[in-house]
Amino acid sequence: MNGPTLRTLTGAVAANVAGIRTRTRSMIMAVVKADGYGHGAVTVAEAAVAAGAGWLGTTSVGEACALRAAGLAVPILAWLHASGVDAEAAAAAGVDVAVGSVDELGALVAQAASTVRVHLHVDTGMSRGGCPRRQWDELIGVAQRGHRARRVRVVGVMGHLPLADRAEPAANAAAVAGMREALKAVRAAGLGSPLAHLAATSGALTDPATHFGMVRIGAGLVGIDPSGTVEMHGASRLTAPIVHTSAVPAGTPVGYGGAYVTYRAAHLSVLPVGYADGIPRELSPRAGVEVRGRRFPVAGRVSMDQIVIDTGDRYFPTGTSATVFGPDGGATPSVHDWAHWAGTIPHTIVTGIGPRVRRSIA
Ligand SMILES: *Cc1c(COP(=O)(O)O)cnc(C)c1O
Q1: What is the CATH number of the domain that holds 297?
Q2: Which of 9, 150, 267, 309 sees the fewest Cβ atoms within 10 Å?
C-alpha cells in the first residue's frame, strides 16, 4: 500500500501554459518559487519550458541554481536576496538578478567579479521589493556606473501589480504608467531597451496592457487563477490510503474535543494525513474527501498526522485510496474547495503540503 502521495500532473502544466499563450504574445516566464508552488520546481519548470515558457523565475539565487543543476538552460531570474545579492553564484550559474534598492545595487557594483545580468526592480504600487519612485534616478545612476565598469548589464526592468486580481484593467493603469516611465528613464540613461515585465497570472489573463515583453506566471502554471475569471487545469492530486477503520454507533464523538458526533451508526476511516502534512486545521464542516466516487465528510478535528472520515453505511477495507484533492471534478474536491473550507487562498493549500507526503509525477 502506498502512503500519502502528491502527483504532479505535467500535462495540466502544459495545458495551462498553452492557455496563457492564447492570451498573450509576450514571452512567458514560468515562476517556480516555493518548489514550484509545492508541485516540484524542476518538474514544473521542465513541463513549462517544454510547453513554450522561455524563461524561469525564482525567489532566490539558490532556487535558480538548483534549476541550472537540473539542466534547465533557459534564462532564469531571481528577485529576493536575503543576504544581499550573491553575485558570484548568480554569475557562475548564469542567473539574472532583480535588484530594487540603491544600496543593494551599489554593493553589487562594488563586489561583482564578472558582469552580472540585472533587472531593475521598480516599485509600481506594491511597496514591497521594488525601488520607490523617488529613488529611480539614483538607482539608474548606480546602474550606469556599474554598466561603465562592466560590473552589471541591465537586461530587464521589472514591476509588480498589486491589484490585478480585481480583473479590472483600470486598477492596473497607474502601475502600467509607472512601468512606461521607468523604461523611458532607463533608455534615456543609455542603458538600452531592456526586457520589461510587470504582470503575473492575473494580469496575463485579464489585462493585455500589462503584458509588456514578458508575463511571469506562477499560480497559473498549477491551475490557480487569482482573478477567478478563467478555469485552468489543477496540476496535482493528493491521495491517501485508508489505514484503519471502525464501526461505531450513533452518538459517538470523534477526535479531540469530540467536535463531531455521529448522528447514526457509521463506519469511520482514518487517513494518514494531518496538519503536519498541510491539511488545514481550521476547516468548515463541509470539508470532505472522495472515496470510490463519493464525497465523505472529515469527521472532527484534524490531528497532526491523521484525519477521520465518516463513510456512513459504506465500509471500505484498509488500503482503499481516498482522494483529498484533485482536478477530477464530481465527488473529488479541488484545491479551491479546500481553500474555501479553510478560509484561505489555493496557493496556501498547494504550498503547504509537507515533506512526508511522497511526490510522484504523472
Ligand atoms: C510569485 C510571483 C509571481 C507569480 O505570481 P502568480 O500570481 O503566482 O502568477 C510573479 N512575480 C513575482 C515578483 C512574484 O513574486
Answers
A1: 2.40.37.10
A2: 150
